[in-house]
Write a structure and sequence with these properties.
By secondary structure, the chain is an alpha+beta fold. It folds into two domains: 2-51; 55-110, no CATH class. The chain contains three helices and three strands; from the N terminus they run H-H-H-E-E-E. It has helices spanning 2-20, 22-52, 57-63, and strands at residues 83-87, 96-100, 106-110. A three-stranded antiparallel sheet has the order 1-2-3. The protein is rod-shaped, with a radius of gyration of 22 Å. It binds zinc ion. The site of zinc ion has 7 residues, from loops. Zinc ion is lined by residues 75, 77-78, 80, 100, 102-103.
């Protein structure tokens, strides 16, 4: 996330320095950076809330007791036991979101 901010700031710096000269860039950055960081922060908070809204495995099994009949966990919508585990924001994310491979709905979360 910060990497993207730094790269875009660097590219913007390059562009603005060529177009307006070096005095102008710091004014632009001073105005823009709070807005940009607020935007990223708001996105992160909303995104985290989306993850927290999914039930944990225990909550999922107490809401759908028949989804675990002793042979693994089943999808509460279609009954499939083909459940995929995705990293929430990417493959390396330890926040895992488990979704049904058949009807593609998010079922529960593990990790945090
Ligand atoms: Zn399903």
């Amino acid at each position: 996330m910060f990497f993207v901010m730094y790269v875009s700031a660097f590219l913007f710096h390059y562009w603005a320095a060529r177009k307006f000269g070096y005095g102008f860039i710091w004014i632009i950055l001073a105005v823009l950076l709070p807005f940009i960081s607020t935007f990223f922060l708001a996105f992160k908070v909303l995104n985290d809330r989306k993850y927290i809204n999914f039930p944990t495995l225990e909550e999922y099994m107490s809401v759908h007791p028949r989804s675990n009949a002793g042979m693994g966990i089943y999808c509460s919508q279609c009954g499939s036991n083909h459940i995929r585990s995705w990293g929430f924001s990417g493959p390396g994310d330890i926040r895992r979101l488990h979704s049904c491979a058949m009807c593609n709905i998010g079922l529960y979360r593990t990790g945090f």
